[in-house]
Amino acid sequence: xxxxxxxxxxxxxxxxxxxxxxxxxxxxxxxxxxxxxxxxxxxxxxxxxxxxxxxxxxxxxxxxxxxxxxxxxxxxxxxxxxxxxxxxxxxxxxxxxxxxxxxxxxxxxxxxx
Length: 113
Hints:
Helices cover 59% and strands 15% of the residues. By secondary structure, the protein is of the alpha+beta class. β2 (52-55) and β3 (61-67) form a beta hairpin. α1 runs antiparallel to α2 (37-50) and α1 (16-32) crosses α3 (69-86).
């Protein structure tokens, strides 16, 4: 059987500057956070190994890469953790409860129609 690869379903394209910031953020977490450092380093290494440098339609340097859903979720977590180390994030309310209420209302609307 031939070797098969699966293309990550979440495709992204970032400017060179934004890509550099993302990799630096992951590098920071890898070096300075023992709880999430291993995951940060894994994401950083994957970005550096599999990303594709290119030029966009305006001739500006950019980088294209893909994530699987779990990797995209981990990347969001890494960014939030990086931010929270600098600026404490205190939600104004319990958004999970808000979500449950909205879902309940949507379900009721579906049942009424």
